[in-house]
Amino acid sequence: MTAPPHDTRTTGNARTLPDTQQGMRRRNLARVMHTVSSDGPLSRASIASHIGLTRAAVSSLVDELVRWDLLEELGPERPSRVGRPGSALAVSGRGPAGLGAEIGVDHLAVCAVDLQGVVRAQAVRRGSNRARSPRSVARELIRLTREVTVTAEKEGLWISGLAVAVPGLVARDGRTVVRAPNLGWHDVDLGGLLPEGVPVTVDNEANFGALAELWLGAGTPGDFLHVSAEIGIGAAIVVNGQLLRGTRGFAGELGHVPVRPDGPACPCGGRGCLEQYAGEEAVLRAAGMEPREDVVGVLAERAEAGDEAVREALDQAGQALGIALTGAVNLLDPDTVVLGGALAALSPWLLPSLQVELRGRTAGPACPVAVSELGPQGPLLGAAHSAVRAVLDDPATVAERS
Amino acid sequence: MTAPPHDTRTTGNARTLPDTQQGMRRRNLARVMHTVSSDGPLSRASIASHIGLTRAAVSSLVDELVRWDLLEELGPERPSRVGRPGSALAVSGRGPAGLGAEIGVDHLAVCAVDLQGVVRAQAVRRGSNRARSPRSVARELIRLTREVTVTAEKEGLWISGLAVAVPGLVARDGRTVVRAPNLGWHDVDLGGLLPEGVPVTVDNEANFGALAELWLGAGTPGDFLHVSAEIGIGAAIVVNGQLLRGTRGFAGELGHVPVRPDGPACPCGGRGCLEQYAGEEAVLRAAGMEPREDVVGVLAERAEAGDEAVREALDQAGQALGIALTGAVNLLDPDTVVLGGALAALSPWLLPSLQVELRGRTAGPACPVAVSELGPQGPLLGAAHSAVRAVLDDPATVAERS
């Protein structure tokens, strides 16, 4: 559950800084932060050899990062190597922290994660958000963020950014929820309903789930397709350690890939979409069950207990997933397919038929399928870590704001 | 047919240069080249304002590029602006040139393109390559490259790189043809059969076709899905002006996306793949025709003449394309789908049913479909221009070699 070694990839800002002396310094500050974050504690000399700069250049960068409360000195390294021992540096457990939030169909959650990646405060409220106005949901979310912020501040942290996961399509502006059918939201400027004064990002929960997998999953490669499900089925495509978002921000709509082109009509306008075979409602219907709360838990329980109707329904869902994934794998050639969210809990009954399709439809070795260990925690953790990584990617912005 | 204005995107090397003073200078040399290439002729002052560096910094970069024969001075600009007129700079029509080559199933072609993007020499040989060994094909290709090189050298050019388009899957090493079924090639180290001393890149023809569209197409966006067909059906995915290659280099296999999961068996191991409905062989079969040369020309001619069997076969192919593209568009959210290669010539008879599927299966506005103006010339031009862009992306490598 730790980041892969030498993962000094940056996630956004640092890449687009201008190519001037000042821009170069900002990028190198980011390199130092990422290196210490993934491989620390490290001495100045080790950092220098990791990133290919001189010891003197690194010392100047490190001094600044220590002054900004982003790195801390741990005292002398044990003298196991040649030469005078240097002081080891670690990412600070004080200073800025990222706030992650999740608006689920049946819950709200907020957590604060420090630069070391540790969850330092958390708050959850259960209860349906289906019939509520965006303003009312945002108000309650703000209350939860205040609660978490107060706890974090008591521990010497301050909030550097807020990232919110929503179960719907988000425009590329990172604030407008274009469509969240299970909340009944259309074109909601969620960013405008949230507090000013701290940078806010809104993104699809499948995207944050995939980022959590990338950053926190054990041995997750830089190229994968992350498939998750709650009510609908969503996917997120990660290429070279970056999310593929699509022109409008709508990429990853695996749930509307046609599986059987003459199949049942789908609210999206299509016919025979994956969601008509593997979405929650479709699986419940196939198992002869009524709509209810905690669908996934109940399905897993009954399948475990040997309920034939449920097992058959999940087997059919797995087959449809396998057909849709064959198309996705042919198009994207990912290293791995990762089943996350609700699909992780149901994977024992989905995987056999899914694999039969994927393997049977592929010449040569089929794309491996892994099951996420983060499961339903993924989106919230991904959101909080994205706020943390915004600091690692451009530490100088923190100096401007702290 | 010109590059979009202000397109100073680099295509590879420049992004990964180390972040040191020297690396910064190399990246800024690339910025100057790309700026003059897309918007020139330009004065030093205009270049400076385009890329956000000082006039003095730009002068030093320009002097070097002129010394290396990459830029040329056109003499004083017309005094239409305020201040002392500067000398206008243009990309040189001498110096390095890129060599593009195409190994088709029924032809070989080579061309040389200078830094201005002008084709300066070309050679083509018709004749089937189906039953020939890779070594024999490579020998003939080398003869054609020599012929083109001699012509180019007479005009003051020298060859800075060679890029070869092949009708098959190429490994990410950029030299090994993993699978080219219509040539009968498996795991052929084509790079090893080509001349040493000049950088050689091998890539799939669909990828080079998409790059040609990106670089030379009128108003092509930075995010699109390029679909082309010869014997099989291939696609290339362009995201943010970059090819999405996939983990093994196999991304874009649209031809093997399942359209009807219980359809006819496909040599890939699957059933009901797009190629079983819209590949050349499938269309010929549906039209009741025998295998033959110049399939596309004959199909277009007969459809034009009102042959009902051919029109019906193309209509069915368009429908299958529309179903497969619905899945691809849902996954990738591209700005546009571009039909290139043979599909461009057949588009009048494919598009109606293709659009019915794509529009009917999408809630909201469907992804626009455009037809490439480059058609079958795309892969060869894309290959040559990729060799040219390697120079624009890192001009300093040319200085090391010239």
Description:
With 402 residues, chain A is of the alpha/beta class. Chain A has 3 domains: 13-91, Winged helix-like DNA-binding domain superfamily/Winged helix DNA-binding domain (Arc Repressor Mutant, subunit A), CATH 1.10.10; 95-210 and 378-401, 2-Layer Sandwich (Nucleotidyltransferase, domain 5); 218-373, ATPase, nucleotide binding domain (Nucleotidyltransferase, domain 5), CATH 3.30.420. Chain A has 13 helices and 15 strands. In chain A, the strands form 4 sheets. The first copy, chain A, has a 5-stranded mixed beta sheet with strand order 5-4-3-6-10, sandwiched between helices. Chain A has a 5-stranded mixed beta sheet with strand order 13-12-11-14-15, with helices on both faces. A 3-stranded antiparallel beta sheet of chain A has the order 7-8-9. In chain A, β14, α11 and β15 (369-371) form a beta-alpha-beta unit. The longest helix of chain A is centred in the C-terminal third of the chain and has 25 residues, at 308-332. The two termini of chain A are 30 Å apart. At the A-B interface, α1, β12 and α10 of A face α1, β12 and α10 of B.
